[in-house]
Specification:
Blueprint lengths: L16 H7 L1 H4 L11 H21 L13 H16 L5 E5 L4 H11 L4 E5 L9 H7 L4 E5 L13 H10 L3 E3 L19 H23 L1
Parallel strand pairs: 1-2, 1-3, 3-4
Helix pairs in contact: 1-8, 3-8, 4-5
Cofactor: pyridoxal 5'-phosphate
Catalytic activity: (sulfur carrier)-H + L-cysteine = (sulfur carrier)-SH + L-alanine
Pfam families: Aminotran_5
């Protein structure tokens, strides 16, 4: 029987062996809850989470490790960012700008927020999938509180002009966030449930491996 060829890496990819090696001990050996720091297993788990948070912060360019919030994945992260931001700032305005080709979890959340009073503008894209900076500037209103545009599209791979969008948002004193999932317990009192230690450690190792590879590629 011929060996099958996997061509769906856009949907999911096999785990890097270096990442798997780093994760394995946290499934059976270091299995403590990172919130239970009154015993050795919990202490080791917390240290592992902190190391992972440091590696993730480095690749994202965060100034503080405390800026990293670990969630179950991109869908929860997008929900947390969009719903949390709107509910906190809706007293200042209810207008949100996004793009028409966001991931469904973003578009669905924006639809949900409409029921809470949000007014959403979805920017169209050109034939290549890029939004127009001019369209963005024309869409900004006095009551615009958030601009949410994805970094890299999960289907066609285009990278939106995030730097320019961020500069515009900053100049107008508007919050800007991006879904960068395709570009690269109790957690900080912002989510419920027990923290997934193996996944967090694996995420940190993935960030470390990616950062080192990027540095090597830049040198070469």
């Amino acid at each position: 029987m011929a060996k099958p060829i996997y061509l769906d890496h856009n949907a999911t990819t096999p785990l890097d062996k270096r990442v798997l090696e780093k994760m394995i001990p946290y499934f059976s050996e270091v299995y403590g809850n990172a919130s239970s720091i009154d015993h050795l297993h919990g202490h080791h788990a917390k240290q592992a989470v902190q190391k992972a948070r440091e590696d993730i912060a480095k690749i994202l360019g965060c100034r503080k490790n405390s800026e990293i919030i670990i969630t179950s994945g991109a869908t929860e992260s997008n929900n947390l960012a969009l719903i949390g931001t709107f509910r906190k700032y809706k007293g200042k305005g209810r207008h949100i700008i996004s793009s028409a080709i966001e991931h469904p979890c973003v578009l669905d959340t924006l639809e949900f927020l409409k029921a809470e009073g949000a007014e959403v503008t979805l920017l169209p894209v050109d034939k290549y999938g890029f939004i127009s900076i001019n369209d963005l500037e024309d869409s900004i209103r006095d009551d615009t509180i958030l601009i949410s545009v994805m970094f890299a599209n999960n289907e066609i791979g285009i990278i939106e002009p995030i730097k320019e969008i961020g500069q515009i948002a900053k100049s107008r004193n508007i919050l800007f966030r991006t879904d960068a999932a395709q570009a690269v317990g109790h957690e900080r009192e912002m989510r419920t449930g027990t923290l997934n230690i193996p996944a967090t450690v694996g995420f940190g190792k993935s960030a470390e491996v990616t950062r080192k590879q990027m540095e090597t590629q830049n040198i070469n």
